[in-house]
Design goal:
Radius of gyration: 55 Å
CATH architecture of the largest domain: 3-Layer(aba) Sandwich
Strand order of the largest sheet: 1-2-3-5-4
Number of strands: 13
Helix content: 40-55%
Largest sheet: 5 strands, mixed, barrel
Distance between the termini: 104 Å
Oligomer: single chain
Number of domains: 4
Length: 469
């Protein structure tokens, strides 16, 4: 395209000096110059441009609009991406990422600069969906959502199974047929959700949380979430963050059954178990009823064999016990025990008599010793000594109280002399500032018109107001 800046110009004819002076030079406003530059850009540049470069200075405003710079080794272009265009991106732009952006160049009049308005954006060298997958995988892995310690154990014999997929897809029939063929005793509960398209991820996440909220009534043992095969775009709902977090927060064990063998989604990594196909989900979630019956038969046979062996062994033990002397003549054991009981009774009786006799002898000996001591004379001497001690204590107490009484009288006299109010009886008075309750010692302690209180003897007081100092 031929540039407007390269148009041939007509030669300017020289004008007489007098005419040039008569012409007046045209003056442009800033807005007019900006409009001229804007028209030049619009008429010169293509309507849409695709630019390759590297993201720098990425920032997302609270309004949802995004601002960044696209740069290479020699230049930099300020760029804007509106909220509506940014919402269509599957990956998260970040500084240093090589990208291809498509949009147009225009002037931003308030700042008098040109900038690029990006309408679409994709990573350079890798698909946007693949990059978004890797970004989401790294983010959730760093948070520990894939860790094995968070995986719930699958029930061995589930009887109430939830299936969450689209009713129009083949995955539903594959899952149901697989479970019915292996475990027909299970009760299946179906929850219809969209599995692709705009808003599918949010609908799946809401459905998972709803099932968990109502599971006290539903009583599901396990939940299968999935769909049949398709392109990466078709399976994308199972790579979005709302679904991953809903599966992680589910109290019901979740099996992810999405796509084919080669398809691996974020939901597969977060779920408690992954089924490579919807059909395999039935194999993982339920046992084979024929195998269970075979196991039950084997267990029944082992129980019967173990029971027969235990009965035979117990029968032999019983015969041995019955052949013992105790069972041939059981009264002998009782009679021997009775005889030993009589012997014990005699020994206890003899021992009791001996102990009582010894105690009587000891008591008699102590009584004789007490009589030798003559306790009545000992008590009389102790009573006399106690009376003398009481008399001495009473005299000492009176002396001490007299000394303290004298000291108390002396202290009271001294305190009376130091009492500042003792002089009030001799015609003196004490004056206080009523507002501050402080004693007025000089004219500076009170102001004009303030109320003062004068105290006389016997707590008599008068109030007065200062008229003049």
């Amino acid at each position: 395209m031929e540039s407007l800046f390269d148009q041939p110009k007509e030669p300017v004819k020289p004008q007489p000096v007098s005419k040039r002076k008569e012409q007046q030079e045209k003056i442009y406003t800033v807005s007019q110059v900006t409009s001229l530059i804007k028209m030049c850009l619009e008429n010169t540049l293509p309507g849409r441009l695709t630019i390759s470069g590297e993201i720098s200075g990425w920032r997302k405003h609270s309004s949802g609009h995004c601002y960044l710079d696209i740069k290479d080794e020699n230049a930099i272009i300020p760029t804007v991406m509106w909220k509506s265009d940014f919402a269509k991106l599957k990956f998260k732009p970040e500084n240093g990422l090589a990208i291809l952006v498509k949009g147009y160049v225009d002037i931003y009049p308030p700042q008098g600069k040109y900038q690029f308005y990006a309408e679409t954006m994709q990573p350079a060298g890798v698909g946007s969906l693949q990059l978004a997958f890797e970004q989401m995988k790294n983010k959730l892995q760093a948070e520990g959502l894939f860790n094995e310690e968070h995986k719930r154990e699958l029930p061995k014999y589930p009887f109430r199974i939830g299936i969450m997929t689209s009713k129009s897809g083949a995955a539903l029939h594959d899952i149901v047929d697989s479970i019915r063929n292996r475990w027909p005793v299970a009760k299946l509960l179906f929850y219809d959700v969209p599995v692709q398209g705009q808003g599918a991820a949010e609908r799946i996440a809401i459905a998972i949380r709803d099932v968990n909220k109502r599971n006290n009534v539903l009583k599901l043992d396990i939940l299968i979430v999935g769909r049949g095969g398709g392109s990466m775009e078709d399976l994308w709902a199972f790579n979005e963050e709302p679904v991953a977090r809903a599966i992680f927060g589910s109290k019901i064990p979740v099996i992810s059954a999405v796509g084919h063998e080669v398809d691996v989604t974020i939901a597969d990594m977060v779920a408690d178990a992954r089924a490579s196909t919807p059909t395999k989900a039935g194999v993982i979630v339920v046992p084979d009823i024929d195998e269970v019956f075979r196991q039950l038969d084997n267990v029944a046979k082992r129980i019967k064999s173990d029971t027969d062996s235990l009965l035979n062994l117990s029968s032999q033990k019983l015969k041995t016990i019955l052949a013992a002397a105790a069972f041939r003549n059981p009264k002998v054991i009782i009679q021997n025990r009775q005889q030993r009981l009589d012997e014990f009774e005699n020994k206890i009786s003899d021992s009791t008599k001996t102990v009582i006799s010894n105690l009587n002898h000891l008591l008699h000996t102590f009584f004789e010793e007490i009589l030798k001591i003559e306790p009545h004379k000992l008590l009389a001497d102790r009573k006399i000594a106690l009376n003398n001690l009481q008399n001495r204590c009473a005299g000492a107490e009176r002396k001490i109280l007299h000394v303290f009484d004298l000291k108390l009288t002396e202290c009271a006299s001294r305190l009376g002399g130091l009492n500042p109010k003792s002089v009030l009886g001799r015609g003196y008075s004490i004056t206080r500032n009523k507002r501050t309750s402080t004693i007025i010692k000089s004219v500076n302690d009170v102001e004009d018109s303030e109320v003062i209180v004068t105290e006389f003897a016997n707590e008599n007081m008068i109030e007065s107001r200062v008229v003049k100092k």
